[in-house]
């Protein structure tokens, strides 16, 4: 179970997304997502998180992210408890690390 979850650096997540090899889920809340998010990721807020809704397309790695890394850890635990068997990746440092690395993010109008 411990080895089921690994970390990826934001640049690694970007590279996987560019190659269409990652299914990325943002577990932040909708208001946070509206403020800033990574283009092409799915929103599945932790407050409404249902492990049975997590269905990565074939041959794609499941990558979870949040603002800093805490909530995607909680989502990982929920997935494992619900019986999810495949590898789970967490983006190290969350969206804060993504933005700090200068990777592209969509800025919204929510405040």
What does this structure look like?
The protein has one domain (2-103): 3-Layer(aba) Sandwich (Oxidized Rhodanese, domain 1), CATH 3.40.250. β5, α3 and β6 (88-91) form a beta-alpha-beta unit. The protein is of the alpha/beta class. A 5-stranded parallel beta sheet has the order 1-6-5-2-4. It has a two-stranded antiparallel sheet with strand order 3-7. It has helices spanning 10-18, 30-35, 70-81, 94-100; strands at 5-8, 22-26, 36-37, 42-43, 61-65, 88-91, 106-107. Helix content is 31%, strand content 22%. The longest helix is centred in the C-terminal third of the chain and has 12 residues, at 70-81.
- SS elements, strand count: 7
Largest sheet: 5 strands, parallel
Architecture in CATH? 3-Layer(aba) Sandwich
CATH superfamily: Rhodanese-like domain
**Strands of the biggest beta sheet: in what spatial order?**
1-6-5-2-4
Radius of gyration using CA atoms only: 13 Å
The proportion of residues in beta strands is 15-25%
Structural class estimated from helices and strands = alpha/beta
Level of helix content? Answer: 25-40%
Report how far apart the termini are. Answer: 39 Å
Low-confidence spans: none
Shape: globular
Mean pLDDT: 94
């Amino acid at each position: 179970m411990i080895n089921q979850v690994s970390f990826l650096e934001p640049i690694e997540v970007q590279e996987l997304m560019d190659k269409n090899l990652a299914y990325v889920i943002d577990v932040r809340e909708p208001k946070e997502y509206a403020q800033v998010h990574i283009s092409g990721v799915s929103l599945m807020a932790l407050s409404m998180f249902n492990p049975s809704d997590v269905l990565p397309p074939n041959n794609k790695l499941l990558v979870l992210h949040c603002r800093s890394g805490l909530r995607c850890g909680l989502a990982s635990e929920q997935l494992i408890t619900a019986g999810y068997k495949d590898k789970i990746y967490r983006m190290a440092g969350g969206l804060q690390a993504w933005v700090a690395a200068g990777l592209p993010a969509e800025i919204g109008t929510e405040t």
